[in-house]
Amino acid sequence: MKEERREVLDGLPQRWSQSDSAAANDIGSLMGLVSEPAVRSYVDTVLAENIQLKQSVIDLRSAEFARVGASSALWPSVDGASSARRQRVKTGRTGDYSNSFDLSATLNWEVDLWGRLADAQSAAYSDQDAAAQDLQAARLSTAGRAMRDWIQLVTLNRLIQLDNSRISSLKRTEDIISEQFTRGLGSLGDLEGARASTESSRANLTDRKLQRDQLVRNMEVFAGQFPSSRLKASGKLPTVKLPKSGFPLATIGRRPDLLAAYARARAADYRTSAAYKELLPKFAINFTLSDQASDLSDLLQGGPAWSLLGNLTAPLFDAGARKATAKEQDLAAANAWLDYRDALLTTVLEVENALNAEFSLRKRQGQLARAYEHAQENYRQFERRYRDGLTDIVTLLTAERAAFDAHQALFQVQQEWLQNRINLALALGIGL
């Protein structure tokens, strides 16, 4: 299965297909994307209190102890034992008493002739490295989600403000229709149509508030807190800087999830090597010191007894069990390298998609900003014409709805644009 190891980096691009924008910045850390204190404070709280991150820390500690256990197999183990015994032996009508004290120490050591134990130790070190990188990847992912959630919350607050403005505008339209009706220029149907639009907008506002409240509670739980709906965010979107993309090889060298996948593949290789070495003979040494005396002070007087045993064992027949285990581990290692290859492909895809989205979302924002200006002007024109009796209520309400829809679409593309920059920084492996 060595071909999987050799081909894992085949075809890796030397450059990204999308070049950096002139607005790109050298960002030293993910937290450097934003400067707003409220956002940074929330992210800090999440990083300190998030339950999943605390579990990742426990996983790392578990991997550290597993590494200690694997390393200890390379060293001799020494066991000590002691006992004290007092017994009565009946002699005639009386009895005699005797004491006996025993002391022993045994050293056991498997000599690592072929490096099998060293391979197991190296696998444990790689597992520990993978767990450490998993923790860093989890911290980055958690911080990125916290930033995206904050942007979404601010956007929902802005959309709620827009819904309130829409309702106020529709109420003004109702007043205009009522005025026209009293002058004999409108109809009761026009007034009912305007009222229906107002109630529909109120329903949208209720749904938007529900979304906002649910997001706030989710964000509080994500920060390790009981949901209280007390989290507040300002109505202004934070500024998110555009990070420079650099080169693909640099990204591979710093993304913790890729480093974790590589470490797991290396651990699988070490386990494969150790599994094949299970087919070879093992040599162990057993050395025992012991002494026995009837008085505690006589122990170790005159030198203890000792024994030295060298033990050589080799597998002769196990119906192919060890060989099958080694082959199975070899397949597991090949699968681990394919996982690493898949992670590489996913990384390149994420970066390319985020770079392409940066260009597209920036272009869409400009287009929607212009569309909003035109929709506003169009609504003002139809409002004047309706006052003069030159158009109907359906046309006026359609123009009004188009203006608000354009404004809402502008808010939402701004949210997507800022969140995409966070996704790009995560895809590039920019650390905390």
- Oligomeric organization of the protein chains: single chain
- How many DSSP H or I helices? 9
Q: Report the sheet-strand fraction.
A: 5-15%
Could you spell the SSE succession in H and E letters?
A: HHHEEHHHHEEHH
Identify low-pLDDT runs. none
In one word, what is the shape? elongated
Structural class: alpha+beta
Q: How many whole angstroms does the radius of gyration measure?
A: 37 Å
Q: For the report, how would you describe the main beta sheet?
A: 4 strands, antiparallel
Description:
The chain has 432 residues and is of the alpha+beta class. The protein has helices spanning 2-7, 37-49, 51-72, 116-182, 188-222, 248-254, 256-277, 321-387, 393-427, and strands at 77-91, 94-111, 282-293, 305-313. The chain has a four-stranded antiparallel β-sheet with strand order 1-2-3-4, with no helix packed on it. α2 crosses α4 and α4 (116-182) runs antiparallel to α9 (393-427). The chain is elongated. 30% of the residues are buried.
